[in-house]
Design goal:
two-stranded antiparallel sheet
């Protein structure tokens, strides 16, 4: 099992994040080592803080209106290695070590396995 590595939580960094009208910010998840984009999900202030403190990705489900820790049900956990926010503070990027089959709930490694025109 990969090691859990918490990321330092700094209030000045968290204050930079801009949430939408629903209190959410998009979070892109990229695989450590390959650079492959695995998925995009939503975070609120609580799940962002939990992700950084716990070293595992925690998201907000808009459909279920509840938080969910990636892999608690599927076993396909994500261990955070690096965390970034963009220049505008309105998008997050997490570089993770992906455990299990992959990130997509369909069983694919990445949620981005379909291409336009292909």
């Amino acid at each position: 099992m990969p090691a859990v590595t918490p990321i330092a939580v700094r209030d000045e960094d968290l204050a930079t994040v801009k949430y939408d009208q629903d209190g959410l910010v998009p979070a892109i998840v990229q695989e450590h080592g390959t650079g492959e984009i695995l998925m995009m999900a939503w975070m609120n202030e609580v799940t962002l803080r939990r992700t950084l403190e716990e070293g595992r990705t925690v998201f907000w489900s808009r459909s279920r209106q509840e938080e969910w820790r990636k892999g608690d049900t599927s076993g396909d956990r994500q261990f955070v290695r690096e965390a970034y926010f963009d220049c505008d503070g309105d998008t997050l990027l997490f570089v993770v070590e992906q455990e299990g089959k992959g990130a997509c709930h369909t069983g694919e490694k990445s949620c981005f396995y379909r291409a336009f025109g292909g």
